[in-house]
Design goal:
The chain is α+β, with helices and mostly antiparallel strands. It has 24 helices and 22 strands. The chain binds adenosine-5'-diphosphate (ADP) and magnesium ion.
Length: 640
């Protein structure tokens, strides 16, 4: 025992005990409002949800002072019967579900029956509604409970004034009117994208600030809401994997933004923010978008309602999937396949890719044949060739770079029949070039990237296609081609591993240790041998031969972290392999300042047309640009 005196520390005084009481109803609603109503935009979201659930075809949102002073949402939906108006304001009163079975397959936006009660508890609210077959409308004042007649058409208006007037502390958290207005508009925009058949209008202080008419064509609504440039710079997504359907538009890497402000994801028509889906999307862009750039996308994910729980968040912005992995994979593959398609194949992106899309029912707004890389006329045949061994790959690097895509290509060495026929199909024989200019220019018409004209500054290839001038960064383009060839030819082979002379040890978390043990086989495939040597230490005994100079602990840690992500194991293997190949590809690609013949340039263009992801180099930069005749004419002030 210690010799020192150890006085018992004085325990803090107990607080005065208060008796347990049930909270008054009003306060319960105000507490609930804390979760549901954060700002004016939350009110807009809930009221528009209700209007859509009521079958509205036209929804008008009128705001004053950014929605803080007043929010009015008018719809032409089914309305509320006078006798039910008061009920609509009660907590947990809803017309949308009646049983647990209903809850598990809910198809409406609302179902918790708490939005109107919550909003009414922190504002001055009135409900005005008229149902079919009734000659006049009824107005209910939420505060006084007073009912009175009102003249109006069939449908409902909800008026919300002086939000948070009774809870000044909440009101202090609001931003400027302009900011709150922007959030309100964003709330409507989210609905508008999902429901193209419904017309929306937003007024602020008596001025029309946004209007989206009912869409008639498939991309009308996206065009109206996000702009023509969004459409131009996107590829169509339309894929199904098991019970998961993924449709929509995903921006090409070039269209990525500094902020994540154009990322719309809907699950069964409901706007959601979901980490798993965001991660799946990110993974699909990984190979073409580097750094902090944020891709743009509008994705509609449809899945059997029984496989998703929408009742995990008060505002329903989060969902929980029964099988997160299947959703992650479906999203990732859908986008990956669409992005892999070289855009040169469809000079104006969506327009051509979506050929075969018909207008029509809103549910089919994203209709059209699924675009899969393997259906593309430009899809690379290399992807389906005999896998090569790593050793064979060295061939690519001992040859002159041109060999990889020159007419007498090493591609033949790489994989005989496929590559040979590919050369025959696509590289115009030299005789043909000189013999029949007409035939050649006709063929050039058909080539998306056109016919090579010249090389500029040893860096760019200039070509002519039916739109005008094409400029290609030859190193960047070739790097991608070599990279994709390497990826395709490597098949499922494991990465070569090299033992470390002295094993590297590092202190690890319980999760890292568990992952190292559970994923030992995956780590092996990655060329990494890492195993616990004590309850909190891991030892790296081998790592990929190609990365032998990397810090073993740092490498192992980042791979273990990767393996903990959804779909981590497959991704980690792929990524590690891709990183190695990218390094190799860079060495294999044609260097700047090498003179190319016209035939070599044409061969490069044809390879680009056939190679997946060839619009970006391995670092996410564009490999080619189109300068249209119109742009050239403008440069020279022609036609003015
Ligand atoms: P929930 O939408 O979860 O049912 P709310 O509090 O938002 O709960 O709405 C309560 C009920 O009021 C709804 O179930 C619906 O019957 C009715 N209601 C609300 N808004 C409208 C509207 N715009 N048109 C018709 N009925 C409405
Ligand atoms: Mg609701």
């Amino acid at each position: 025992m210690s010799a020192l005196p150890s006085p018992t520390p004085a325990r803090p005084a107990r607080p005065a005990r208060s008796a347990i009481k049930a909270l008054p109803d009003e306060l319960v609603s105000q507490i609930a409002a804390g979760e549901v109503v954060e700002r004016p935009a939350s009110v807009v979201r809930e009221l528009v949800d209700n209007a859509l659930d009521a079958g509205a075809s036209q929804i008008i949102v009128r705001l004053a002072a950014g929605g803080v002073r007043s929010i009015v949402v008018e719809d032409d939906g089914g309305g509320i019967a006078p006798a039910e108006l008061a009920l609509a304001l009660q907590r947990h009163a809803t017309s949308k579900i009646a049983s647990l079975v209903d809850l598990e397959s809910v198809a409406t936006m609302g179902f918790r029956g708490e939005a109107l009660a919550a909003i009414a508890s922190v504002s001055e609210m009135a409900l005005l509604s008229r149902t079919e077959g009734v000659t006049q409308g009824t107005r209910l004042d939420a505060r006084t409970g007073e009912l009175g007649p009102v003249a109006r058409g069939v449908g409902t208006s909800v008026e919300v004034r002086e939000l948070f007037f009774s809870t000044p502390a909440r009101r202090k958290f609001l931003k400027t009117d302009a900011t709150e207005l922007a959030h309100c508009i964003e709330a409507v925009r989210r609905h508008a994208l999902a429901r193209p058949e419904v017309g929306f209008a937003v007024w602020h202080e008596g001025k029309l600030v946004e209007q989206w008419r009912p869409a008639t064509g498939p991309d009308d609504r996206v065009r109206a809401v996000l702009g023509e440039t969004f459409i131009d710079a996107s590829v169509r997504i339309d894929a199904q994997a098991g019970p998961v359907t993924v449709r929509g538009l995903a921006g090409v890497p070039d269209a990525a933004r500094a902020r994540a402000d154009q990322q719309y994801v809907y699950v069964n028509g409901r706007f959601v923010r979901d980490r798993l889906i965001a991660h799946g999307v990110r993974a699909a862009y990984e190979d073409v978008l580097h750094g902090q750039r944020q891709p743009v996308y509008v994705l509609f994910i449809d899945i059997d309602p029984k496989r998703v729980d929408v009742n995990v968040h008060p505002t329903k912005i989060e969902v929980r999937f029964r099988d997160g992995r299947e959703v992650h994979q479906a999203v990732r593959h859908a986008i990956d396949a669409a992005l892999a398609l070289p855009r040169s194949a469809s000079a104006s992106g969506v327009a051509t890719v979506s050929a075969g899309v018909h207008g029509g029912a809103p549910a089919a707004a994203w209709g059209g044949a699924p675009v899969r890389a393997d259906q593309s006329p430009w899809a690379t045949p290399l992807g389906r060739q005999q896998p090569l061994s790593l050793r064979d790959l060295s061939v690519l690097f001992v040859q002159e770079p041109r060999a990889a895509w020159g007419p007498s290509a090493a591609a033949t060495t790489v994989a005989d029949d496929g590559a040979a026929s590919m050369v025959a199909q696509t590289v115009p024989p030299a005789q043909a070039t000189s013999a029949a200019d007409d035939a050649e220019s006709q063929a050039a018409e058909a080539w998306p990237l056109g016919r090579a004209l010249a090389q500029l500054a040893g860096v760019y290839v200039l070509a002519e296609n039916r739109h005008g001038l094409v400029i290609v960064d030859m190193h960047a383009a070739h790097e991608r081609i070599v990279y994709e060839q390497l990826k395709a030819s490597l098949g499922g082979e494991a990465i070569a591993s090299q033992p470390l002379l002295i094993p590297a040890t590092f202190s690890a978390t319980p999760t890292e240790i568990a992952t190292a043990q559970a994923e030992a086989a995956t780590l092996q495939a990655l060329g990494i041998d890492v195993a616990p040597i004590s309850p909190n230490t891991l030892a790296v005994r081998a790592q990929p031969a190609a990365l032998i100079d990397a810090d073993p602990a740092a490498l192992a840690r980042s791979v273990l972290a990767e393996l903990q992500q959804p779909g981590g194991a497959t991704r980690a293997v792929q990524r590690a392999r891709d990183d190695l190949l990218a390094t190799m590809a860079c060495h294999g690609a044609v260097r700047a300042n090498r003179r190319l013949t016209i035939e070599e340039m044409n061969a490069l263009l044809r390879d680009m047309e056939r190679t997946e992801r060839s619009d970006q180099c391995n670092h996410g930069r564009p490999t080619w640009r189109q300068v249209s005749m119109k742009e050239l004419d403008t440069l020279f002030l022609r036609g003015r």
